Automatic annotation (TrEMBL):
Gene3D superfamilies per record: 2.40.30.170, 2.40.420.20, 6.10.140.730
Name this polypeptide is given: Membrane fusion protein, Cu(I)/Ag(I) efflux system
Residues annotated as domain CusB-like barrel-sandwich hybrid: 141-252
Species of origin: Leeuwenhoekiella palythoae
Domain of life according to the entry: Bacteria
Domain CusB-like beta-barrel: 257-334
């Protein structure tokens, strides 16, 4: 009995131990799973998707927080590199290694006290000939240049020097008249005097005329003499050339005085006045300053460079200044200067001709940069005064600026070369209210058929067919009566015909498509102003055509068939207007 009890006790203990081992470990595993589950529940994955940005492979400047289509070309967006996470739209981030290799340095800007040299304007320019001292040496009679004694630029010319010898048939005939009338000068003095005056008008001197008369010989060749002294700045004829009376042979400049012409930016114009004293320095004489006075400020701004020409006249009796020589001018600005001003090193500023740009370090702890447009004032030595765009404490790139700009350009961000600029305001096509006669509208509707065939040929990339249909469209428009139409209407029609003729005469597809852009800028507004077409027309637009400026065309089908790219991007575009 005791033995059975012992067996039972051992079995119970063994059962409890096995249960502990089985269910205890299971509980531990369950707890572990539960802990992992809790960790999974509490761990936030949303940051991964929230920070993911999407971009276009062809337009990397596009950054969107969600997948979709590119607003420019319609292509599917792709995930942007994770390195771009956390950056603003036009911020770029560089690695420390790239910063070191490019030797990129930054400086914190702040107010600088004005020195006695502040307020000085520094202008760059070059020496040019004084147009007031230029003279053109011309031929006084028709003929052929037998000999050109002065035939290269820079050659010295003295007053009375023989410049050229010309064979002049008219002078040969006039000499014959002189010899004939010389025997009649007693009986017909007026006729004799008229012949002599004719020769004088051809710049023959009395001595020359008397020599011809006394010798009785007719000369074939006559010299042309210099009427001024100076330096030849341009040779305008060559030996053997036939020249007309009054045709230029040489351009001679008197370099005893020259012009120093400088470029002044828009923001410097208010500081400049005629009569200001200006000091001129040139690299040829680096340690010498030449005093001059501002004699002219161009009233017209150069649209390409956004500058005006400032001119000063320099005496050049010692022949120190050579036309084309670079010079620097310094003068005191007229504008009152404040006591405090933000100045930056000249190396920090990039100038495009229209804008002045710097790169700001937007994160003090990381190499993150963003381009900013600034307005610069006067230059003082190696520093610029900045009037707008910077604040005290801004950290800007002062060395390696162009390297940072290149990195921004490669990443598709705003940079010196690809900053998005506002296009000039242009009247929308739908607002071009044009009126056409019924006869013209009928003729225009006839021109639409070959136009649409030309568009289809562009879609098919068939240059020969494009030329043929362009010619047919042009013929249809040329037969229309446009004399009674307004100036805007006539301008659009004439430009359309001009582009159609250009397409018809060109067999290069790329050139045809370039002309097609301008054609549609004129054809589409006409179609939108015509009172009803025979069938529904769609105005369609490709945002990528015309160097990403966008271009339109007319289509009889709603489905997009892109004539600017053909099979390369057949469906790129959208319907922007319907013409019923």
């Amino acid at each position: 009995m005791k033995k059975n009890i012992n067996y039972i006790s051992i079995a119970v203990i063994a059962g409890l131990l096995a249960g502990y081992l089985i269910f205890g470990n299971s509980g531990t595993e369950q707890n572990a799973v539960k802990d992992l589950s809790d960790m999974s529940d509490t761990h936030d994955h949303s940051g991964e998707s929230e920070n993911q940005m999407w971009t276009c492979s062809m337009h990397p400047q596009i950054m969107q927080p969600e997948p979709g289509d590119c607003p420019i070309c319609g292509m599917d967006l792709i995930p942007a590199e994770s390195g771009a996470d956390g950056l603003a739209m036009n911020e770029i981030k560089m690695t420390e290694n790239a910063m070191a290799l490019a030797n990129i340095q930054t400086t914190i800007v702040g107010n600088g006290s004005m020195s006695e040299d502040d307020g000085m304007i520094s202008l760059s320019g070059k020496i040019d000939t004084n147009e007031e001292n230029n003279a053109v040496q011309a031929s006084y009679f028709d003929g052929r240049i037998e000999r050109l004694n002065v035939n290269y630029e820079g050659q010295k010319v003295n007053l009375g020097q023989t410049l050229a010898t010309i064979y002049a048939p008219n002078l040969v005939a006039a000499q014959q008249e002189l010899l004939t009338t010389a025997s009649l000068k007693e009986s017909q003095p007026e006729l004799y005097k008229a012949v002599r005056n004719k020769l004088k008008n051809w710049k023959l001197s009395d001595n020359q005329i008397d020599a011809i008369e006394s010798s009785g010989n007719v000369r074939d060749n006559f010299p042309v003499y210099a009427t001024v002294s100076g330096t030849v700045s341009e040779v305008m004829a060559r030996e053997g050339d036939y020249v007309k009376q009054g045709q230029p042979i040489l351009k001679v400049s008197n370099l005893n005085s020259v012009w120093a012409e400088f470029d002044a930016y828009e923001n410097q114009i208010s500081d400049l006045k005629v009569g200001q004293k200006i000091k001129v320095v040139t690299n040829a004489y680096a340690n010498k300053e030449f005093d001059a006075t501002v004699s002219f400020i161009d009233p017209i701004l150069n649209n390409a460079t956004r500058t005006v020409t400032v001119r000063a006249t320099l005496k050049n009796t010692d022949d120190l200044f050579k036309p084309g020589m670079f010079v620097t001018g310094k003068l005191k600005g007229e504008m009152m200067m404040t006591n405090e001003v933000i100045t930056v090193p000249a190396s920090a500023v990039m100038w495009t001709g229209e804008r002045s740009l710097v790169y700001i370090k937007t994160n003090p702890n990381e190499p993150v940069f963003e381009m900013r447009e600034v307005t610069i004032g006067n230059r003082n030595g190696e520093n610029y005064a900045v009037t707008e765009g910077l604040q005290n404490g801004d950290e800007i790139v002062t060395n390696g600026t162009f390297t940072v700009d290149a990195a921004a350009q490669l990443q598709g961000k705003n940079s010196m070369m690809n900053q998005e600029k506002k296009e000039d305001a242009m009247m929308p096509m739908s607002e071009m209210n044009m009126e056409f006669s019924e006869n013209f509208q009928k003729q225009f509707k006839k021109a639409l058929k070959p136009y649409l065939q030309m568009k289809d040929a562009l879609v098919a990339s068939d240059a020969n067919q494009v030329s043929a249909f362009a010619k047919a469209t042009s013929t249809a428009l040329k037969s229309a009566d446009i004399k009674s139409l307004g100036s805007m209407e006539q301008s659009h029609i004439k430009k359309s015909i001009e582009m159609l003729d250009a397409i018809a005469e060109n067999d290069i597809l790329e050139n045809q498509r370039d002309h097609f852009v301008i054609l549609n800028e004129n054809m589409v507004p006409i179609a939108m102003s015509v009172n009803g077409t025979d069938a529904m027309l769609y105005v369609q637009k490709c945002p990528m055509a015309n160097n990403n400026k966008g271009a339109v065309w007319l289509s009889a089908e709603k489905d997009i068939r892109n004539p600017y790219y053909g099979d390369a991007m057949l469906t790129c575009g959208s319907v922007i207007e319907e013409i019923k």
